[in-house]
Amino acid sequence: MKEHRQEIIYILTIIGTSCGVIGGWFICATKGWQQNDMFLFWSGVVTVVGMVLGLVGWGVKLIIAANKYFSVLKLTKNNKIMVENLLEKVNEKEWKTDDFAQNINHQFYNFVLKYDTTNDNIVRKIIHTTRVADMCFSIACKLNLNENDRHLAYLGGILHDIGRFEQWKRYQTYNDKISVDHGDLSYELCDKFDLSMLTAKDRETIKLAIKYHTKPYPGNDERVKLFNQIIMNADPYANVLSAANGEHRMMGITADGYTPAILDDFMQLKLLQCHSAKTKLDRVLMLTACLYYVRYDFLREQILKFNFFTAVSQSFLPYLNQADQQTYLKAVKTMQSRYLNPAYSKNLN
To answer: pTM to 2 decimals?
Structure first.
């Protein structure tokens, strides 16, 4: 019932408005107010009820639209306040630069100060980065890695998207297809950070894990694969959390409909990075795919436990028209039914 509430409101609005208009026209055309028969009386009742339903329906639609608008404004404002508080720490004396995480955080915030931190696209990327870093560290703990490797995992999370800031500055887009591969750019920008506390081998290991966090790693180094997998799980999981909280947006895409190849690959649980979103539904499918990009069993258990499938899909429905909503919900249902099927997990390789 909940997932169809927008359709119900839409139908009631149309029926109510139609009854009001048709009934009003009929009474005026027949000069019903001058007559006294029961037929015209009930026509008047239908007209009044229809007008009330129509007004209520349009009122609800306006309230929903206003609530969505102000929610985005509130979210943007809260995000900016959060980042401002983080960036204020750069000049605070209590930074413990001998502590690995504090040292890296300090360098990261100094790095992002070179960019427009009043821009919401930059703000959201800062927040995403810190979430991924925390998630990388949590995964490393869950895998029982030693302290050094936990530090490397955290470092991979903090630096995995540093190329995004320069990408936005140069091209005003996060679309790698029409700008630059942000993994490659992040690899290059790692050299802007003082990583002298690491061995040369560990520096190159984490840089390669970052470079290939959105594409297949062609090498055989097991440590690169380890940290690459940590980032590749933390990154989509952070996106799932953002989507469940309604933080994602369409980034200027306004077209309805969908690209068949994207819809087919989504239902086959395949990677969608090779595609470019041309419609709102394309974009929604590519964001929702983060649910099955997560591979670690303990993270998938969390996704199922907290019913993120419903939370994520519900957060995207307001962006889609009625036909696309139905297509999307059917696709998510199909994908969810195959979620734990090992045969489909192979499609991510």
So the answer is: 0.74
